[in-house]
Amino acid sequence: MPMMHLSLRYVGLVLWACNIAVAVSLPRTATLYVQPANANNKPAVLAQIAYDPDSLEFSVISYSPPKLSSRPEELVRVGPGDSKSGIIGYTAIRAASLAEDVRKTVVLHLDSKGEVYQSALYASKTKGSEEITDKDLQVKLVPASKAPKPGLDKPVVLTEDGRIPEPEPEKTFLQRYWYIFLAAAVFALAGGGGDK
Predict the structure, then answer these.
(1) What's the pLDDT score for residue 23?
(2) Strand pairing report for 102-110 and 138-142
(3) CA-CA distance, 33 to 79, in Å (whole number)?
(4) Strands 57-63 and 86-87
(5) Which of 8, 76, 126, 139 is the most exposed place for a label (fewest CB within 10 A)?
């Protein structure tokens, strides 16, 4: 029994080291803060997520759910920012959505430079038999999409006096296919009769 307990510690240590190694190899880090909506408290760190904007790989470095207030219906802000200037691009949710028995999904919206400019947090209640850990914090990265370009028509060509030219009148059938009638007439006249 003690040997098995010792080997599980090593497995946990190796997994923790792998998580840190992945987080170090990812080029950017997003820090999400939480703050009561009706208070002037400084925001507290909710989670730190390392991500790569090119491959959209991520790793949850840390996740620490805040202590719930006595009022679970109280609104809290969750979003990126910093502890000095506050939270920007936030989602307002009920404090009960940050409880331990709630599965949380964080959506990070990236700008064209790969920086997080907005986040959203979605919460869903789990079944009583499911166990939620901090590893159950789901993350989804949404890269910036290029805006569609308008389909422009050909530029309008104006006449010398600055007016739109009038369209030419449509040609008649004979004016369009005169060369076919000419070729048929030449063949009819040139093709002589047989010798009799």
Answers:
(1) 45
(2) parallel
(3) 6
(4) unpaired
(5) 8
| Burial bucket for residue 74 (CB in 10 Å: 0-12, 13-18, 19+) | middle
Taking the C-alpha atoms of residue 117 and residue 90, their distance in angstroms, rounded to an integer, is: 9
Q: What is the rounded CA–CA span in Å between residue 179 and residue 162?
A: 37
What pLDDT does residue 106 have?
A: 87
Chain mean pLDDT for the chain:
78
Cα separation, 79 vs 66, whole angstroms: 14
- From CA 97, how far away is CA 94, in angstroms rounded? 6
How far is 131 from 103, CA to CA, in rounded Å?
Answer: 10
Compute the distance between CA of residue 111 and CA of residue 113 in angstroms, rounded to an integer: 5
For the chain, give the percent of residues with pLDDT over 90. 8
pLDDT digits (tens, 9 = 90+) for 9-35: 666 666 565 555 454 456 888 888 888
Closest CA to 138 of 126, 147, 127: 126
Secondary structure of the chain as H, E, C letters: CHHHHHHHHHHHHHHHHHHHHHHHHCCEEEEEEEEECCCCCCCEEEEEEEEECCCCEEEEEEECCCCCCCCCCCEEEEEEEECCCEECCCEEEEHHHHCCCEEEEEEEEECCCCCEEEEEEEEEECCCCCCCCHHHCEEEEECCCCCCCCCCCCCCCCCCCCCCCCCCCCCCHHHHCHHHHHHHHHHHHHCCCCCC
